[in-house]
Each structure stands twice: as C-alpha cells, then as structure tokens.
C-alpha cells in the first residue's frame, strides 16, 4: 500500500516536472510526457469505458485536447486530476458524438426507401430499372445523395440549387420511386405492362 | 498487424507534431486570469459610464455615511469578483471546488438580500437627484463588451462546466454596470428594478446561453 502511494507520488512528480519543462519550451520533455500519457490514457479508457470501437480516435482527440489545454495546468496544482478530467470529458464527448452519429445512421436507414422497396416488393423490377424511369433531375439528386453519399448541402451546391430545394427534390424522388414500385407490382400482378413515368398519373412533379 | 502498425504510426506522428510546439505563450496564461478581465471591465464600465454622464453628487460620501448603502454596493462588487473568479477557474480542469461554488452563491445571495431590503426600505431617501438620461440603455451597452471579451477569453481554456461558467460570466458582465448605476444614478426602488437590475438580468440570461454554447471545449474543437 505504501509502495503504491510512493509510486503514485513519484509518477505525479515526474509528470509535473515534465509538463513544467514542456511549458518552458522543452520539446523532448513534452514528447516523453505525451508518449507516457498516451499509454496511460489508453489504459484509463479501457478500464472505464471498455474497448471502444473508436478508441484510437479518442486517444488522439484526448492528446490534442491536452495539447490545447496545456496552458491551463499550473505547477501549483496536481497533474493527475487535471489530466483525467480532460480524458474523461473527451471520452464522454466522443461517446456522445458517436451515439448521435449512430442515431443519425439509424434514422437515415429508416428513411432508406430503396431498402424498403427492395424488401417489400420482391417481385418489383430492379432498382436500376426504377431509377431509369425517374426524370433526370430526380435521378440525379437520388444518385448524389443516396448512392454517392453527398449531403443535401453538397448535392445542392453541385446542382446549383439551395439545400432545402435539394432535400425537397430528394424527398419527392423517393416518393416517386415508391409509387413506381407499387404501380409496377400491381401491374405485374394483373399481367399488364407498366407505362413510362411521363405518362404515369402518380408521378410527382419535381421542383 | 498492418492496421495496428498504421495506428501506432499515426499516433507517433501526432506526438511528434504536438511536441514541436510545447511552449505556452504569456498571452495564453494572461487570458485565463480573472484579474485581467476585472481590470478591463471595471475600467470600461466606470470610465465610459463617467464620461457619458456625471456620477450622482455626494455618492462617495453616502457610501461611508449610510452603512446599508455601502454594504449593498460592496456586496454587489464582491458578487462580481466572486462570480468572475469562479467562471475563470472553471476554465481550468479540476480547478474549481464545491467550496468555491458555495462561496460565490453565498455572495450573490447576500447581495440579492440587500437589494430586496433596498427595494422594501431604501437606505437613502428616494429622489430623482442624480438621474441619468438613459441609464437602462447605458447598463446594456456597458455590459455587452465585457461579456463578449470574457467569452473570448474563456474560449482559451478547457471549460468543463460550460453552463455554469457562461452564466457566471454573463452575470458578472451584467452586474458590474448594475452596481455602477446603483452608485452613480438616482435612488428609487422601482427605478432600481426596471432600469438597473432588469438589464443585468436580461444580459445574464442571453449572454449566459451564448457564453455557455461558445465556451464548450467541443465548440472550440469543431
């Protein structure tokens, strides 16, 4: 127990000395400190948060935050609590950011009309065939956002329209695609040939 | 194996690039010093306030002659000092303690009590003597630059409790002109509430929200 306390105090003192030297401009001391801390951070994250899928990103984010906040440490204060406050905040921030990212992904998946159409209409024609029946502007926006993965803003910039217009156009293209698939399924069941999109009364007018 | 080596390489590259700029500048240290903010904010509020309109005659004498009035102004100043000190402490990880927070809340509460007493039983006979032309707008105008400067200064730190830091900073920026107006403008309870304290409350709420969002470490990073 006493040995542990002594080891902790030695480590704390070493970190304080290295940080003090680093703040005075000693790059070698700073490199030594950050190298040592990167292992400490890794162990801390594994012990408190388990194996995060974005562990390395989190470690590097923490190192960058430590670097940005290095002037906030004063030699009058303990180093360990300062360090682990930054580590904990960065890790929690990364986890929150990651969960928001996954929420967004699942919301995106919910709206993935392409997947739904594919799953619900097993007898529907191929996606490529459905896309070919859309108007040029609808096909263009769907390809950019849903296939190439551009954001609505980026797609809007490429097409020379506003972000809102891009979102609306994409939404309407998905609706048109869904209508096409439903019509196609119904006609297939009746044994009729589908009309082209320009003659289809269910076609949504695209802005 | 290759992925692991690539991860280690990227971390090593990051460490090398970070180590290249280890030295901290004097400005980095000064910008997180509450004394700097207090000096600049007090010089701004008292200097510009004095230039805009003269201070109520005999206000200095009343500070000493009327103990309740002197106490009210002193507690107002103490609240500003305590809250801005805590706000800047919050910009250093693990620097603020619950005792700091408790003492700050105590100072603010004590000031609130003296203001409530001044509203119910004014320490000085209410009169229009020393009325300023538009003290409510002065209070707004005088509080905004210190609030903005404080937010910019706090952004240089690593604020772990942004809402508390933002609100405390905004409170300090709003309360400083309120204390000055209590000293320099006419004494009258309803005038105190509507023209001196209301602008401070509005600045505290609005700049508190802006400050909290602006000083988050994540806001600095992204």
Question: Can you characterise this structure?
Answer:
The complex is a heterodimer of chains A (207) and B (222). In chain A, helix 2 crosses helix 4 and helix 7 packs across helix 9. Chain A is 74% helix and 0% strand. The relative contact order of chain A is 0.07. Chain A is mostly helical and 207 residues long. Chain B is mainly α. Chain B is 77% helix and 0% strand. In chain B, helix 3 packs across helix 5, helix 5 runs antiparallel to helix 6 and helix 7 runs antiparallel to helix 8. The longest helix of chain B has 27 residues. Chain B is elongated. The two termini of chain B are 32 Å apart. In chain B, 43% of the residues are buried. The mean pLDDT of chain B is 89. The chains are: A mainly alpha (207), B mainly alpha (222).
In helices, the fraction of residues of chain B equals over 70%
Would you tell me the structural class of the helices and strands of chain A?
A: mainly alpha
Shape of chain B: elongated
Describe the largest sheet of chain A: none
Uncertain parts of chain B:
none
Q: Count interface residues per chain for the largest interface.
A: A-B, 38 and 29 residues
Q: Between the first and last Cα atoms of chain B, what is the distance in angstroms?
A: 32 Å
Concise account of the structure shown:
The complex is a heterodimer of chains A (207) and B (222). With 207 residues, chain A is mostly helical. Chain A is built from 9 helices and no strands.
């Amino acid at each position: 127990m006493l040995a542990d306390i002594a080891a902790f105090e030695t480590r704390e003192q070493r970190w304080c000395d290295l940080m003090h030297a680093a703040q005075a401009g000693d790059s070698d001391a700073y490199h030594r400190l950050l190298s040592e801390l990167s292992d400490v951070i890794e162990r801390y994250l594994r012990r408190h948060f388990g194996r995060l899928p974005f562990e390395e990103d989190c470690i590097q984010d923490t190192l960058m935050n430590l670097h940005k906040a290095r002037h906030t440490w004063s030699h009058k204060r303990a180093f360990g609590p300062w360090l682990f406050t930054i580590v904990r905040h960065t890790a929690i921030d990364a986890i929150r950011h990651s969960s928001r990212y996954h929420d967004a992904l699942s919301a995106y998946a919910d709206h993935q009309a392409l997947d739904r159409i594919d799953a619900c209409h097993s007898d529907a024609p191929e996606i490529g065939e459905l896309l070919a029946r859309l108007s040029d502007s609808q096909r263009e926006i769907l390809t950019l956002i849903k296939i190439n993965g551009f954001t609505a803003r980026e797609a809007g910039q490429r097409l020379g329209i506003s972000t809102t217009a891009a979102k609306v156009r994409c939404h309407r293209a998905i609706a048109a695609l869904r209508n096409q698939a439903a019509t196609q399924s119904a006609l297939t069941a009746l044994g009729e040939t589908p009309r082209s999109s320009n003659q289809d009364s269910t076609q949504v007018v695209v802005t | 194996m290759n992925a692991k080596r690539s991860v280690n390489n990227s971390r090593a590259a990051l460490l090398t690039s970070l180590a290249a700029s280890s030295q901290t500048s004097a400005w980095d240290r000064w910008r997180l010093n509450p004394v700097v903010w207090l000096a600049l904010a007090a010089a701004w509020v008292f200097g510009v306030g004095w230039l805009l309109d003269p201070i109520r005659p005999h206000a200095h004498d009343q500070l000493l002659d009327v103990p309740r009035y002197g106490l009210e102004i002193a507690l107002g100043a103490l609240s500003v000092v305590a809250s801005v000190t805590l706000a800047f402490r919050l910009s250093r990880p693990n620097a603020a303690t619950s005792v700091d927070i408790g003492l700050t809340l105590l100072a603010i509460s004590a000031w609130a009590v003296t203001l409530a007493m001044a509203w119910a039983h004014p320490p000085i006979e209410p009169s229009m003597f020393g009325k300023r032309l538009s003290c409510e707008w002065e209070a707004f105008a005088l509080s905004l630059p210190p609030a903005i400067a404080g937010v910019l200064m706090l952004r240089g730190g690593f604020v772990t409790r942004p809402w508390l830091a933002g609100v405390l900073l905004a409170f300090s920026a709003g309360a400083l002109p309120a204390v000055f107006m209590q000293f320099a403008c006419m004494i009258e309870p309803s005038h105190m509430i509507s023209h001196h304290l209301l602008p401070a409350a509005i600045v505290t709420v609005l700049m508190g929200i802006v400050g909290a969002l602006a000083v988050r470490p994540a806001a600095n990073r992204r």
